[in-house]
Request: fold
Amino acid sequence: MKVELQNLTKIFPSRNKKAGGEVVAVNDFTFTIPDGKLIGLLGPSGCGKSTTLYMISGLQKPSGGKIFFGDDDVTELAAEDRGVGLVFQNYALYPHMTVKQNILFPLQNLKGADKLPKDVMLERAYEAAKLVQIDELMDRKPSELSGGQQQRVAIARALVKMPKVLLLDEPLSNLDARLRLQTREEIRRIQKETGITTIFVTHDQEEAMSISDLIVVMKLGVVQQIGKPQDVYDNPTNLFVAKFLGTPPVNVFEGSVKGGKLYIGDAAVLETPGVDDQDVFVGIRPEGFILDNNGPLTCKLNSVEVMGRDVSVVSTHSASLNPVVRSIIDADNQVAAGATVSYSLKPHKVFLFGKADESRIYFGVKSDG
Amino acid sequence: MVESKHSWKAWIYLAPAIVLLLIFTVWPIINTLRMAFLEGYSTMGAVGGATYEFGIGNFKQVLEYKDFLTCLGNTMLLCVLTVPISTILALLIAVCLNAIKPLQRLLQTIFFLPYVTNSIAIGMVFAAMFNMVGSAFGGENELIITAGIINNVLGFFGMDPVNWINAGSSYGANMVVMVVYIVWNALPFKILILLGGLQSINKQYYDAAKVDGTSRRRVFTRITVPLLSPMLAYVVITDFIGGFKEYSSIVGIFGEDMGPTGDPRRLNTMVGFIYDALANHQGRASAAALILFGIIFVVTLINLYVSKKKTHY
Amino acid sequence: MSELKNKTMQEKDLKKVSAMSKIGKIVVMVLLYAFLITMAVIVIFPFYFMLISSVKTLEEYQRSIPTLWPEVIRLSNYVEAFNTGNLGRLFVNTMIVGIVSTLLSLVITVLSAFAFARLEFKGKNALFAALLGTMMIPGELFTITNYATVNDFGWMNTYTVLIVPFLVSIFYIYLLRQNFMQIPNELYLAAKVDGTSDIKYLWKVMIPLALPTLISITILKMMGAWNSYVWPRLVANEEAYQLITNGLRNAFTDVDGNANIPVQMAAVAIVSFPLFLVFIFLRKYIMKGVSRSGIKG
Reply:
């Protein structure tokens, strides 16, 4: 099922009644989610991603704009009539019911023509349970399950009624690191197998990058960028997106463009044809540095961290806006011991952002860069 | 914690409480057991030098006593009627209160109002509401002027007036009045506890149910009630214990005669029975008190057992 | 073709469904409010009846069709009630008993709760468990012996008999102990290191932190004195020591309709009025105290 959001807006009255005013949680969000894809809504807390999810589920009413499932306008439709499956951050499994009863619950709600015979319901419950590999645990209570197992039960409960859209709210945030890795693969697999359009919310960029077909980066209610994870990573539209995606994070410097050249400090580090003279923020991905003794960018060397395949070089630079400049280079390169380290830069890993609005300034990259 | 050489200090802090407890709590427990098993014991007699045989005569006597059976019957009937009615009503009101936004605070306050009242004083108000004005004897020159406000309301719906509490009233009518008053009295506590319980249920369960298209009825029976069951068990247990000790609400309506004019003691309860025997028949009163304790103990155990079976999660 | 048809039908369906669920919601809301407001009216009606009846003339009260608002407001009923019931004397008695027993009870409760929460002594847990165990026993069981005891002490018809036997409430000790236990022990140890005495620590740290509980106990204890009926009736029936509830019941005992009910209702209103004041101004503490501790009235 294709999901279309048109100018979706949500305004909350301010919590502080005396002060008045309002909070715009989601501002004019327009996007069409293609059928059968896995979409990650990504952003720091308070960016409106959960609100967006809840509006799609029908639990919250938009202040403006429309939501379409396929060609049907569901904006005015209550949650129970939308046919969505929702997995809550804390799973919201009914504590007094067994796993089986939890999974059966949505099916038992069906009425009239949709009503299913008992054996069909049971069959479908077991099918859903098998899909998430918890069919051995059907008679347990949620309190007897691990966090990962509870998560699977929640997914099974959402899937059992064959929803048009599956929504996941921070599905991995309550799991430990090892389970998180495992479960995110699992979500990817389940989504692939069922082909249900799935939207999940997360504040963890790695999580979103690793499994999504498309990611939507949000900040303070406004969509910053939508695209395939790699595209967004390679081509952030503004400083926020550049900073939000990637570990280790992008290195940000104060810089300026003079006569088609980018200066960091006094050194001209890169040719930037077609950019007017101005002060800029410079973002350089950690993998954008090339060790080069004659390179233009010289930093004070702090330490070298060997991480197997790669080497992470930690240094400082007076124009850096991050506490340290961190580069990742191939372990084959020997970092010469010394007080400084010099780099040349890969142009396509260097982004320029305007000082005023922090939006991207593009420059012509020579194809051999 | 602090080293134990100061432990005498703790006993100084506890001294006033312990002295009072020894006199007014520990001694009565021992003494009640003693008096209950001394046949026909009375303090006056004991002071006068009479001696008493050890035995279970008091218990036998109490159980054979017709008055006691009346009291036991009244108490049980009141419990069996008021506990379910007030619990169901309180549950409904709490659930409805929890579902609304405007006026919630105001209504919550109104429903809590009866909690802070004096059960004797408001009992008199209820008595006045159920009362006939004038005389119920209906002698030649004593006319019933009005049938009382409750009967006026009944009349408004085309029903005949009922003699609720006056001389010549029926036992059933008396019971109705008591049930209404006791339920009215029990509601605020229960609503408060149940509403608190409802508000502490994670809202996500309801969101989850909503997304799954659960009907209101099913949400209520399959989610709200099970999740509220510990609180429900709690109010039911406390209400049963309170119900077995019912006394002052009856005094509030009927006065210390514990019944309508012409038929005193008709609505007497277990506690009333104990108070009646208190001054002169301590043996009998003690036996009755122990029986009351036994009943409360057993009912509480049953309640705990049932609720443990129904509320485990 | 058929697909298209299907779609338009579905669209219609969706509109219908959303309209239906909206109407359903409105109907449910109307029913909810109707039920709640009806119940609220029933709950509040006795108070209303008490107030309007208390200012009616006897003639107006006895009319066959009752008036919902008094034609003449007759405040002299209150004066009559006050004099008939000797309510002034009863009020003074009740206040004396209430204030003295509340103060003493607070002192005893605080000291005991402190000992149980912060001090270490042999048999502490056993003693505490035994005390909690006695809470299961109905109070009537104690009354039988206590009645004889206070008689032996020669306390009949004194203030003492109304105050002393109920000074220790295990329940309040329990409540306050729980509250004290939530205060981190490090605070106590720090105070010890600084050489603060126990009493000073109790007064400066623990009592301020447990103030809400103490206020709840104070209110409930005062209300207890105001509403107590059974024990005072047994041991202090002389008018000089009678408490307000007993006085009220004794002065207006006539169950049958011959009494001057407006005056009686005025007396009830006078007795209820302080409770309403407490309710209005201290509702927060009462509700908190009740819901946290589950004290049944």
